[in-house]
Amino acid sequence: MTAPLRRSATTFRTYAANASDYFARHRDRKWNRKILRHFADCLPGPGPILDLGCGPGFNGSELRNWDYHVVGLDRTREELHLAGQHNPGMYVCADMRALPLRGRFAGVWACASLLHLEPEEMADVLQRLSCLFLPEGV
């Protein structure tokens, strides 16, 4: 196993083991509401949004409150379980490095998720994401 995969696996296990604590400590999202609103205002239309690395669904829930259709994607089942309980919506359990999605999105919200990629993985993930955008997607 290569070093990047070990780091990724360690991060994944940490999120899984601490999902409830993360939920409790980070549920107040006032700190990013302004940037999330700016993102929403830049969208080319009412198309769906992919919340990449959604965790317990905090940001997607805010976007849903603004009448956007959001698909949350996260690798951690424990985080998605909390999302389903507290922030109902559509969720997909998957790794962003192997996106199982075929839809087209008006935008991709990636709050603190891409930072978990190794530098050598970034270009491939961004290329895959770019194929999911509607024209003028954000």
Key terms for this structure?
alpha/beta, 6 helices, four-stranded parallel β-sheet
Number of domains: 1
Query: How far apart are the first and last residues' alpha carbons, in Å?
Result: 35 Å
The number of distinct β-strands equals 4
Spatial arrangement of strands, main beta sheet: 3-2-1-4
The CATH architecture can be given as 3-Layer(aba) Sandwich
CATH topology: Rossmann fold
C-alpha Rg (nearest Å): 15 Å
| Average pLDDT reading | 86
Give the name of the CATH superfamily: Vaccinia Virus protein VP39
Low-confidence stretches: none
From N to C, what is the helix and strand string? HHHEHEHEEH
Estimate what percentage of residues fall within beta strands: 5-15%
CATH class: Alpha Beta
Largest sheet: 4 strands, parallel
> Count of DSSP helices?
6
If you had to describe this structure to a student in words, what would you say it looks like?
- By secondary structure, the protein is an alpha/beta fold.
- The protein has one domain: Rossmann fold, CATH 3.40.50.150.
- 46% of the residues lie in helices and 12% in strands.
- It contains six helices and four strands, in the order H-H-H-E-H-E-H-E-E-H.
- The protein has helices at residues 3-17, 19-26, 33-42, 58-65, 77-86, 119-130; strands spanning 49-52, 70-74, 90-93, 107-109.
- The protein has a four-stranded parallel β-sheet with strand order 3-2-1-4, covered by helices on one side.
- The longest helix has 15 residues, at 3-17.
- It is globular, with a radius of gyration of 15 Å.
- The chain starts with a helix and ends in an 8-residue tail after the last helix.
- The model has no long low-confidence stretch (mean pLDDT 86).
